Amino acid sequence: MASTSNQPGTARDAAADSSHPFRTGWTAFAAILMIFGGAMAIFQGIAAIAKDDVFVTTSNYVFRFNLTGWGWIHLILGIVIVLAGCALFTGAAWARAVGIVLAGLGALANFVWLPHYPLWSIVLIALDIFIIWALCASGGERERV
Description:
The chain is mostly helical. Helices cover 67% and strands 0% of the residues. It has a domain at 36-53 and 65-140. It has helices at 11-18, 26-50, 67-90, 93-112, 118-137. Mean pLDDT is 77; it is low at 11-17 and 141-145.
């Protein structure tokens, strides 16, 4: 007699499907947002490195940094965020934790970048906060039987 545990549609297959990293879609959405946000950070970094006078500087802001230095920070952080976003598509367990940390660092970098490009910094901060939420919200869900 054939074993029923190898038949498709059994409870075992349902449990295996529920452990897939994209079971809710939030992880995939966070990965797409990380790739997009990282690409935008790369472009910010390139613009700051190539031409400092593209951005307006505020004279009385608490955080005063060299734009070229911030350009390199945004460029490197953007590359790492894009790579972590791509790693989320593979289902790597470490990519979720790294994604949360990198999104937090991205939000912090954009907070300090506020006097140079305020509207875009606010958009990227909101994007990073949503990435953190999406990666945390989809991590602990279990299938209900």
